[in-house]
Design a protein that fits this description.
By secondary structure, this protein is an alpha+beta fold. The protein has two domains: about 10-45; about 60-265, Alpha-Beta Plaits. It is built from eight helices and nine strands. The chain has helices spanning about 25-40, 60-65, 90-95, 140-145, 170-175, 205-210, 215-225, 240-245, and strands at about 75-80, 110-120, 125-130, 150, 155-160, 180, 200, 230-235, 265. It has a three-stranded mixed sheet. It has a two-stranded antiparallel ribbon with strand order 2-3. Strands 4-5 form a two-stranded antiparallel sheet. Strand 4 (about 150) and strand 5 form a beta hairpin. The relative contact order is 0.20.
Length: about 270
């Protein structure tokens, strides 16, 4: 019996003369993605504490709350002012966002961490905080199969926990080792920083504070410590951070990768 060899995507496989268009490459990719999500979604588990809701950062509501496409939020960190033993920024981030280790202390996420840098020629050592660099072209977003890793219109890179299936592709793609996977049960979560077992997390640049006109917790804490961190709109020529970047030499970690980090360092 003759007939059209229509495939499972609804397009003709060709050769039957029916004139039906074969599925496009985009259609095939979408079908493959759906199949991947169908299998992966079955094992993805998210467990939250009572009263904590997974906020879908990047939705129309979040964008309306403060994601202005004319802005590019960023940090400038002067490591000459960052003392080796100072962990004020790390402590402030933990307190603000509640990412302490689990009950058994088997895992301690690192939304921000202090690293030691040594000049091999001079032997001089410096200490610097490293977190999500909020890239203009974030590799984590490129590899995410569900769209959970996303960049807001104002440059802040986030993870939508509603969509994260815990595949950890973003962790492998991040050049800065800035993302962590939640293995353990969670307690005392913050409503503005939703977390869940089986999901990936990283620095949010304290987006909840930024959207209400405040600086990230690490920056506020550093202001009373070493004063090494400066936060602001890199796109605003009149902002303090934009003036500093234009007037003093700054560097981006692995600037050669072309991802254009929103975090810059001075005296690196």
């Amino acid at each position: 019996m003759s007939g059209c060899g229509t495939d499972k995507t609804g397009g003709c496989g060709g050769g039957c003369g029916c004139g039906s268009a074969a599925p496009s490459a985009e259609t095939a990719i979408d079908a493959g993605r759906r199949a991947f999500l169908g299998g992966a979604g079955a094992v993805a588990v998210t467990t939250l504490a009572p009263t904590v809701t997974l906020i879908a950062y990047g939705t129309s509501e979040a964008q309306a709350a403060g994601a202005d496409p004319a802005k590019r939020w960023g940090l400038l960190i002067d490591i000459s002012k960052c003392a080796d033993g100072c962990t004020a920024c790390v402590t402030a981030c933990k307190t603000e966002n509640g990412w302490e280790g689990g009950a058994d202390n088997q895992q301690d996420s690192q939304w921000i961490r202090k690293v030691s840098l040594r000049d091999p020629k001079s032997g001089v050592t410096r200490s610097a905080p490293v977190m999500c660099q909020h890239c203009a072209l974030p590799p984590c977003v490129d590899v995410c199969p569900t769209g959970a890793s996303m960049k807001r219109a104002d440059g802040i890179v986030l993870v939508d926990k509603h969509r994260c299936i815990g595949c950890r592709y973003c962790m492998m793609a991040c050049p800065y080792k800035a993302r962590s996977f939640v293995h353990h049960e969670l307690e005392d979560q913050k409503p503005w920083a939703p977390r869940g077992v089986g999901t990936v997390e990283s620095c949010t640049l304290c987006v909840h504070r930024v959207d209400r006109g405040e600086a990230p917790a690490c920056v506020s804490a550093c202001a009373t410590a070493g004063g090494a961190m400066l936060f602001g709109d890199l796109n605003d020529p009149g902002s303090e951070i934009a003036k500093a970047v234009a007037s003093v030499p700054t560097k981006q970690i692995r600037g050669d990768l072309g991802v254009d980090p929103g975090v810059r360092y001075r005296n690196l």
